[in-house]
């Protein structure tokens, strides 16, 4: 078991879920395994479905960074409300620097 | 006390039925019973990341062990349900299931998410060591062990599984030959342009591809495979054979219950079997075309397992949702990322965007100018645009779609022409 880092998910009703995540896992996999509602992740992290869309909280956006090219295409087409901090959570790997990372889950996934 | 819901099959569909029941507010007991020893896990990576050593069983698990207890889902692993009978005196849809080890599981509601098994080749020598199939984790673990020492790998079947394994084996430096009985690769899933592209792309990567070639038997020494004989008499040396020739839906339990089956358990758009009190979801089912509502299709995909399971859960709770879900599929063969949206069966026109020689192109399929589907190779934006258009009931003008520099999303327009009847049932 790797080192732990905290990830906080906030659902569309404002409920907070704080989860201990393993460094190196993705924000998507951590959410799904812990049953966080609203992150569907149908394709299991293959950047094929855009059903793991999250809005990264502003203060973490610079650390998390921008979407990659393939992700960019999916975000562009696939999500219902794209914002400047939209990411696919399957493409965010958890690092020590991301301890306390807070992401919001949109009310709907495609 | 209520006996709650029994979900037979610890699959992606089975787990999703359980999760959706809870999300829809159902608080009655749920038993999810699976034949495998492992809690439900993702299958698609078994033929990709797992073979490459980039994923392990733990990382493929859908949920933490604690999730099941926290959600009140009684997960039973390693138990095969061997019989089910419905109550003649209790509430409609209630009954009891029996496992192979003799355990009785009573239920008020029943969901069948039993999946499909790999089709076996009943040929001489088919029982030799080194002849592998790939459907579940244990298969993949065996295959990965065999791959670590193999020299000559023969893959029987040029579909998704066969080609994904061929790519993984080639990436490990093995000598690989793919033998396909049909005249083109992935004939059931993609159009001829894409099939031919993949043949050439795999050849470029050093994989030998034999089309229109049937296997007539296997040779062996001391119980291990040493070669594969083709029907034209050719013999291919092999110390590892992967057979990927499709699946057979598991219909035994449905048959016991007297449910109508036709190459799968027949369900309607609400995932109801011919006994409307019993639902079924995932690879074990055949259903009306999910967009047109016509004909009968079998969809072997993650997307369908999830979407149909969500519908099945709602149905069990007495809510008949009318959902249009666009089928989609993916197959990553090394660096060749194929993404498919829609069903192309019955198309009369195709539009090729981009040059296959660049290994980045897509093919759009139309029938009477109505957009049906896309096969996209390393062009995820095209795939997403078609998925979106189909979900909106919109089309994309074929004449402008030929220009690969015009984003497809800018071409999504207006409702598509009325749906022509689709009479063909496509598996």
Ordered list of secondary-structure elements with their pairings:
The complex is a heterodimer of chains A (110) and B (427).
Chain A lengths: L3 E7 L5 E7 L4 H7 L19 E4 L4 H4 L4 H10 L7 E3 L12 E4 L6
Parallel strand pairs in A: 1-5
Antiparallel strand pairs in A: 1-2, 3-4, 3-5
Chain B lengths: L4 E4 L3 H12 L6 E4 L23 H4 L4 H6 L2 E4 L4 E6 L8 E5 L4 E4 L1 E4 L3 E3 L12 E3 L3 H13 L2 E5 L3 H12 L3 E5 L12 H13 L2 E4 L4 E7 L2 E7 L4 E3 L2 E4 L3 E3 L2 H5 L8 E2 L11 E3 L4 E2 L15 H15 L11 E6 L2 E7 L6 E5 L7 E7 L2 E8 L2 H13 L1 E3 L1 H4 L10 E4 L12
Helix pairs in contact in B: 1-8
What report would you give on this structure?
- The complex is a heterodimer of chains A (110) and B (427).
- Chain A is built from three helices and five strands.
- Chain A has 110 residues and is α+β, with helices and mostly antiparallel strands.
- Chain A has one domain: Roll (Ubiquitin-like (UB roll)), CATH 3.10.20.
- A five-stranded mixed sheet of chain A has the order 2-1-5-3-4.
- The longest helix of chain A has 10 residues, at 69-78.
- By secondary structure, chain B is α/β, with parallel strands linked by helices.
- Chain B folds into three domains: 5-117 and 248-316, FAD/NAD(P)-binding domain (3-Layer(bba) Sandwich), CATH 3.50.50.60; 120-245, FAD/NAD(P)-binding domain; 335-415, Enolase-like, domain 1 (2-Layer Sandwich).
- Helices cover 23% and strands 29% of the residues of chain B.
- Chain B has ten helices and 27 strands.
- In chain B, a hairpin with a 2-residue loop joins strand 13 and strand 14.
- The interface between A and B is medium-sized, with 23 and 29 residues.
């Amino acid at each position: 078991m790797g080192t732990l880092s905290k990830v906080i998910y906030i659902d569309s009703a404002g409920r907070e879920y704080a989860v201990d995540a393993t460094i190196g896992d993705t924000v998507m996999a951590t959410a799904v395994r812990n049953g966080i509602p609203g992150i569907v992740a149908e394709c299991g992290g293959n950047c094929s479905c855009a059903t793991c869309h999250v809005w990264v909280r502003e203060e973490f956006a610079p650390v998390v960074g921008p979407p990659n090219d393939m992700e960019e295409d999916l975000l562009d087409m696939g999500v219902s409300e794209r914002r400047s901090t939209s990411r696919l959570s399957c493409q965010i790997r958890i690092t020590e620097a991301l301890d306390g990372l807070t992401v919001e889950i949109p009310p709907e996934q495609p | 006390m209520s006996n709650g819901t029994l979900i037979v099959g610890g699959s992606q569909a089975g787990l999703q039925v359980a999760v959706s029941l809870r999300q829809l507010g159902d608080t009655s007991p749920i038993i999810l019973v699976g034949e495998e020893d492992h809690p439900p896990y993702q299958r698609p990576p078994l033929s990709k990341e797992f073979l490459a050593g980039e994923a392990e069983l733990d990382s493929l698990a859908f949920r933490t062990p604690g999730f099941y207890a926290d959600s009140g889902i009684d997960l039973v692993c390693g138990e095969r349900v061997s019989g089910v009978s419905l109550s003649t005196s209790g509430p409609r849809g209630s009954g009891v299931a029996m496992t192979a080890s003799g355990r009785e599981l009573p239920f008020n509601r029943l969901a069948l998410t039993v999946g499909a098994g790999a089709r076996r080749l009943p040929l001489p020598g088919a029982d030799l060591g080194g002849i592998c199939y790939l459907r579940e984790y244990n298969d993949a673990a065996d295959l990965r062990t065999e791959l670590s020492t193999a020299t000559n790998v023969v893959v029987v079947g040029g579909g998704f599984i066969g080609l994904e394994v061929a790519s993984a084996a080639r990436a490990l430096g093995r000598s690989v030959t793919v033998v396909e009985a049909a005249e083109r690769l992935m004939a059931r899933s993609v159009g001829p342009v894409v099939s031919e592209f993949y043949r050439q792309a795999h050849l470029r990567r050093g994989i030998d591809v034999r089309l229109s070639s049937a296997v007539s038997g296997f040779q062996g020494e001391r119980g291990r495979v040493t070669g594969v004989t083709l029907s034209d008499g050719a013999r291919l040396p092999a110390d590892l054979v992967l057979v990927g020739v499709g699946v057979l839906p598991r219909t035994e339990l449905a048959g016991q219950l007297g449910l109508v089956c036709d190459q799968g358990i027949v369900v309607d758009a609400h995932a109801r079997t011919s006994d409307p009190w019993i639902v079924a979801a995932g690879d074990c089912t055949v259903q009306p075309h999910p967009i047109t509502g016509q004909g009968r299709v079998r969809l072997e995909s993650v997307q369908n397992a999830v979407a149909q399971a969500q519908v099945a859960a709602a149905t069990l709770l007495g809510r008949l949702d009318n959902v249009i879900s666009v089928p989609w599929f993916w197959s990553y063969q090394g660096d060749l990322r194929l993404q498919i949206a829609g069903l192309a069966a019955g198309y009369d026109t195709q539009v090729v965007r981009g040059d296959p020689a660049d290994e980045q192109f897509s093919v759009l399929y139309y029938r009477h100018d109505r957009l049906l589907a896309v096969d996209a190779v390393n062009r995820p934006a095209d795939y997403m645009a078609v998925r979106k258009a189909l979900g909106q009931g919109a089309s994309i003008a074929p004449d402008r779609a030929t220009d690969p520099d015009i984003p497809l999303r800018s071409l999504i327009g207006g409702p598509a022409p009325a749906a022509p009847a689709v009479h063909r049932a496509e598996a």
